[in-house]
């Protein structure tokens, strides 16, 4: 195995994945490529992820994009996504080309919705890189499920992808048990898939609530083998405003709905009883 490393970030969504990507990408020897989130593998899952499948480009668009590639210029983002989705061998080749640059030893794809990838897909990604001698390490950040779902719902409202009801709590109550929220909140399933595929030394699990602390930054840096930037905790990338408070009644309702998530995370990171406010509604957490 060479000294080259590919970091596979599984999110979770609204859990600091953009910050993690930015932190790693600015380190010496890093090149994470053209996109912040590649959004390649979740398109295979269907359901709420169907929208990530990029439509085939037209003939003229293809000619222009391929001409740029031949000239060594940046190809359009959506063309790149389509190309890597359409031929997964090009996915591996794309990152291997980045790693082949002089002085580059790390790259990665940190895409929040990869939290939904099952073990066979994670194994396919891992095996694909390791076939060429590249080490694969996985990262997964988790946030209080109620806060994460609330933030996701606020984001969807802001983007216009969720219907505006005029009553935030009523809308959130309809949203949290649905497929859109569940697909990104079942940390228990993500953890099981990670542990099936990756050895303990190759997986980094953390809590969003601890990520920006000096200890959280040091833990990430140690795992990735990069310098500690103690001041980085004040630099939140892609941070959004608070989704607003919600009642204890709704908080408890959401927490109980996702009780298996709390139980699974507590087994690995028992401090959630202290750092996840909604955990107080679950005596088993």
What does this structure look like?
A four-stranded parallel β-sheet has the order 2-1-3-4, sandwiched between helices. By secondary structure, it is α/β, with parallel strands linked by helices. 46% of the residues lie in helices and 8% in strands. The chain has one domain (5-281): 3-Layer(aba) Sandwich (Rossmann fold). It is built from 14 helices and four strands.
The largest pleated sheet is described as: 4 strands, parallel
Strand content is 5-15%
The CATH superfamily is known as: P-loop containing nucleotide triphosphate hydrolases
Strand order of the largest sheet: 2-1-3-4
CATH architecture identity: 3-Layer(aba) Sandwich
Tell me the name of the CATH class: Alpha Beta
Mean pLDDT: 92
Helix-residue proportion? 40-55%
By secondary-structure content and strand pairing, the structural class works out as: alpha/beta
CATH topology: Rossmann fold
Distance between the termini: 40 Å
> Element order, helices and strands?
EHHHHEHEHHHHEHHHHH
Shape: globular
Q: Give the strand tally.
A: 4
How big is the Rg? 19 Å
- Total domains, how many? 1
Catalogue the unreliable spans. 237-244
Q: What's the number of helices? A: 14
């Amino acid at each position: 195995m060479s000294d080259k490393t590919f970091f596979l970030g599984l999110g979770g969504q609204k859990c600091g994945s953009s910050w993690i990507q930015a932190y790693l990408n600015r380190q010496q020897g890093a090149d994470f490529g053209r996109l912040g989130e590649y959004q390649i593998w979740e398109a295979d899952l269907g359901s709420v992820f169907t929208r990530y499948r990029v439509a085939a480009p037209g003939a003229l668009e293809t000619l222009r994009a391929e001409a740029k590639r031949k000239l060594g210029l940046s190809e359009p983002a959506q063309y790149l996504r389509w190309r890597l989705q359409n031929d997964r061998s090009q996915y591996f080749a794309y990152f291997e080309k980045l790693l082949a640059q002089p002085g580059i030893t790390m790259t990665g794809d940190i895409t929040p919705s990869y939290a939904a990838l099952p073990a066979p897909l994670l194994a396919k990604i891992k095996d694909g890189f390791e076939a060429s001698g590249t080490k694969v390490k996985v990262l997964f950040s988790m946030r209080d499920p109620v806060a994460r779902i609330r933030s996701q719902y606020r984001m969807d409202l802001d983007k216009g992808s969720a219907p505006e009801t005029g009553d935030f709590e009523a809308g959130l109550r309809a949203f949290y048990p649905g497929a859109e929220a569940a697909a990104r909140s079942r940390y228990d399933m993500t953890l099981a898939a990670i542990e099936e595929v990756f050895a303990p030394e190759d997986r980094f699990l953390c809590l969003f609530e601890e990520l920006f602390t000096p200890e959280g930054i040091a833990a990430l840096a140690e795992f990735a083998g990069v310098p500690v930037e103690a001041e980085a905790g004040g630099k939140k990338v892609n941070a959004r405003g608070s989704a607003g408070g919600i009642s204890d009644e709704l908080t408890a309702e959401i927490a109980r709905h996702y009780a298996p998530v709390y139980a699974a995370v507590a087994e690995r990171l028992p401090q959630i009883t202290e750092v996840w406010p909604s955990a107080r509604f679950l005596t088993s957490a």
